[in-house]
């Protein structure tokens, strides 16, 4: 009888462990993060969003098709990362001899509170009028940030209305079909970045 009781206790413990494992698996499934928005082969052109363009048109996800694209997020009050990234794209173009009829550059603002279409147009135009800027409402901006997995965190106001925004500095490489083709990291070596861009353009 003592042996039977011991076996019964072992069975109970095993069933408890099995139940706990099943519960844990369910919780992990429910709470798991969404699929990486930068997973290979994902099509940004199939994920709906609409933003206002500095060219005067409405730019939607479908407009990502047609030409390979360099796309990055930033804002006009950005003191370092954004102007550096724009300057880098201009250097890569110059080095590789690539024009805007072959490769687009798109700058999406993550600061719709301050960046209007006109402000962004003047900003990117000061670097190169070939760069297209995109502006949305707060909700539209959140949507497109979510699609690309971009993080943006508003800093503290200094009392005069000025603030900085910490944000993802990654530049996205998008194929002519609107698909994700990789990234260029902020500060990445020129040779590495240009090799990626050549592959993007040559398809």
Which features does this protein show?
alpha+beta; 19% strand; 203 residues; 5 helices; 40% helix; globular; two-stranded antiparallel sheet; 9 strands
Offer a quick outline of the entry.
This protein is α+β, with helices and mostly antiparallel strands. The chain has 5 helices and 9 strands; from the N terminus they run αβββαβαβαββββα. The strands form 2 sheets. A 7-stranded mixed sheet has the order 2-1-5-4-3-8-9.
Structure, described:
This protein is an alpha+beta fold and 203 residues long. Strand 1 and strand 2 form a beta hairpin. Helix 2 crosses helix 5. It is 40% helix and 19% strand. About 9% of the residues have low confidence. The strands form two sheets. It has a seven-stranded mixed beta sheet with strand order 2-1-5-4-3-8-9.
């Amino acid at each position: 009888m003592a042996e039977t009781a011991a076996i019964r206790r072992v069975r109970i413990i095993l069933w408890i462990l099995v139940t706990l494992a099943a519960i844990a698996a369910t919780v992990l499934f429910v709470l798991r993060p969404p699929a990486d928005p930068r997973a290979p082969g994902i099509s940004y052109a199939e994920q709906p969003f609409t933003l206002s363009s500095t060219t005067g048109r409405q730019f939607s996800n479908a407009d990502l098709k047609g030409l390979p694209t360099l796309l990055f997020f930033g804002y006009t009050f950005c003191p370092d990362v954004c102007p550096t990234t724009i300057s880098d794209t201009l250097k890569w173009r110059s080095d590789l001899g690539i024009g805007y009829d072959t490769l687009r550059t798109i700058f999406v603002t993550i600061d719709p509170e301050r960046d209007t279409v006109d402000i962004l147009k003047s900003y990117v135009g000061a670097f190169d009028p070939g760069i297209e800027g995109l502006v949305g409402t707060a909700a539209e901006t959140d949507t497109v940030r979510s699609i690309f997995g971009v993080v943006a965190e508003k800093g503290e106001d200094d009392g005069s209305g000025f603030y900085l925004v910490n944000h993802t500095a990654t530049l996205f490489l998008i194929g002519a079909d609107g698909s994700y083709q990789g990234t260029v990291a902020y500060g990445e070596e020129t040779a590495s970045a240009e090799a990626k861009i050549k592959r993007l353009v040559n398809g």
